[in-house]
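Notes from hallway chat w/ T.B., transcribed later so I don't forget. T.B. wanted the structure written out for a chain they're using in a teaching module, and asked if we could keep both sequence and structure tokens in one place. Agreed to drop them here.
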Amino acid sequence: MLQHLRLLAPAITVLAFQPAGPAVADGFFLQSDIGSDTRGGVVALQRGPLTFGANSTDYEGGKELYASVTYALQLGNVGVLKFGPTMGKTWQDEGDDDVRTGGKVSIERYTPLEFGSVYGLVDLNSVNNSWFVLGQLNSNALNAGIDLSRGGSDNYTETTLAFRKGFRDSPFSLRAGYKFDSDEAFLGFSINTF
């Protein structure tokens, strides 16, 4: 996994040297991306320190679905630590279905800047050894952003570059990007009330 983090080292470095803002707030997040061979989605609902989340990935060779409940702790200016139980199910094309329970831990950091914000997330899940790293740069003036992420599990890995464009004061955004491991373009949307 460390070799994958090197891809995001510049974004992580920028995050580390900026003062952090609070990343704990009530809100709802929904995102879906669809490519020719892969599909993915994530949903999260946060109320106080609790986050209820689920994500799914449909890739060539199988599908994965995870659900979790995490508790958030503000780590001063470092960011927010979230941890809790998780459950995952895997469907492999060769017929191997598997349900597992485990634990999840993540650290996220939101940094407001003059022109917008920077957001970073590192997420580790013991179910299927899944992991996800995200760096996001947002522009207030353009109501747009760019994401670079890398994630994977025992069953797949993916590196994604995505562009997001919002509309006025709406929480709705359109997404477009490229998945490097799958070698495909994708379209998607997100709804973010945080």
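Follow-up for T.B.: The CA atoms of residues 167 and 173 lie 7 Å apart. Might be a good example for the class.
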